[in-house]
Amino acid sequence: MTPGSKTGAHRSLANHAPTLRRATLWGAAAVVPLVFLTVFFAWPVTALIARGFLTDGALDLSGITTVLTTPRTWRLLGITLAQGVVGTLVALLLGIPGAYVLYRCTFPGRTLVRGLVTIPFVLPTVVVGVAFRALLSPNGPLGFLAIDGTFTAVIAALVFFNYSVVVRTVGSMWEKIDPRTAEAARALGASRNRAWWTVTVPQLMPAITSAGAVVFLFCATAFGTVMVLGGQGYGTIETEIWVQTVQFLDLRTAAVLSVLQLLVIATALWISATARTRQERALTLLTATITGRPLTWRRDWFPTLITLTTTTGLLAWPLLNLTTAAFRDANGNWTLTNFTALTTRGDNNTLNVTVFDALTNSLIIAFYATLTALIIGGLVAYVASRRPTTPTGKRAITTLDALFMLPLGVSAVTVGFGFLITLNQPLGLPIDLRTNGILVPIAQAVVATPLVVRTVLPVLRAIDPNQHHAAATLGAPGWKIATTIDWPIAARALALATGMAFAVSLGEFGATAFLARPDTATLPIVIFRLISKPGADNYGMALAASLILALLTATIMMIAERWRTPTTGTLT
């Protein structure tokens, strides 16, 4: 080898060294969340399903035939699908006009209304269940409708939750659509309705499809809502998983039902991912956010009427009624008795801890859950925001993003019960995680991590890659680029993600119902126990505790919403 060739070889190795180091760092950043997902999600879920299909260590698929030939299974599947489809359609029908009013038009107080509309999404399912029960019960303002404990009551609560998903997802895209396209159609003679259906709707379709898929996902897996509001004999696939595991210990039936639910949810996630990709591609072609036009009753009376009716009748009324009911006794008299009783353990010692003790538990657990979700979700968002040039790299990024959306589509009951049967001594360690309380914040972090990813990732992807290239050309190392370019831009999104993760962790019910010990019960668990026991005193305490939890989560979200930016992501 000649001296010149040796020099060229050394130069080639020197040029490849930074690339190799960067690849190693990105690989390490991806490994940490993947290990977390494997240990605390994939392993418990797989173990639970596998245990249902194994008999004495041998594969036994006879349970599939048994479960799928039972009429009850198909009835539950029908209710689950109907619940998902009807809830989605109603949310879209009400949410699209809301997206127009709140994102396409301007009026005094619009920012405040946007924030208020977001609050229902992060309210604990138990709180919403109590609020709707107080509204629809025989003694409530709408008791004459006689729909308490019915399919209609459940759908109303699901739309209450998911209205903001449609409004924010569709509205965020709508405010970036150039209005001149519809105006051009009108100038060519198209009526307003024709311009809407032929110009605006096709442009919005990626956002509508994506929002619909996510809403279907939430409606089909609404465990807490169905448990609180569903009447006698009403159930879904998810509640049946809970019944079979907790009451009958029938893991085989629960496993088959879990697989059935996974198939339904996987389809919804695939539709959501496909629509989200189309939406992101479309957004790159749109102009910057368009200044909305002033809202006028003469031109916008129809969407305005629908939005006013929805926000006041469906969103505000249940919460206002919950507030007044918490300050009344069984005879309708104004009183503070329900709140003073929160220092007790209810009638006949219904509770193992007081409500205030449970609130303390919730705050501590939510803190650790949020911290974990921010670390794991932040790493995922940072890695997934990279722009690899090779097909393999692009597929790897897409796969990583999709993997961390899976917890949204798997029953929290499945995750919680999977924790119990797998994490007694994980990886052979001489410690039983089920007895030291660490599993509750971990389970809540598994639920909150996808929210962090979806909030932060679009912001990181919106950063101009030329800024990175320029900094690297000037000799800035990777950590310097991250701290001086990425961090200042992503900080606001991380603040919003912190609020969302904390609020969601405070209200998590499904997995926590399995994992919380009696002395570390969280506030949602305590509320559910109170409403599950007869007695006016317990019910009054449940109302007061629900109001406290609702005010806490609403306050957190209103503060967090101040950090939202135009590029901040949504769930879809």
UniProtKB/TrEMBL annotation:
SUPFAM superfamilies per record: MetI-like
Domain ABC transmembrane type-1: 77-272, 359-560
The name this protein goes by in its record: Binding-protein-dependent transport systems inner membrane component
Subcellular location: Cell inner membrane; Cell membrane
Tree of life domain: Bacteria
Membrane topology: Multi-pass membrane protein
CDD domains in UniProt: TM_PBP2 (cd06261)
Entry annotated with the keyword Zinc: no
Transmembrane segments: 25-54, 74-103, 115-136, 142-166, 213-234, 254-273, 301-320, 363-384, 396-421, 433-453, 493-516, 539-560
Keyword Cell inner membrane found: yes
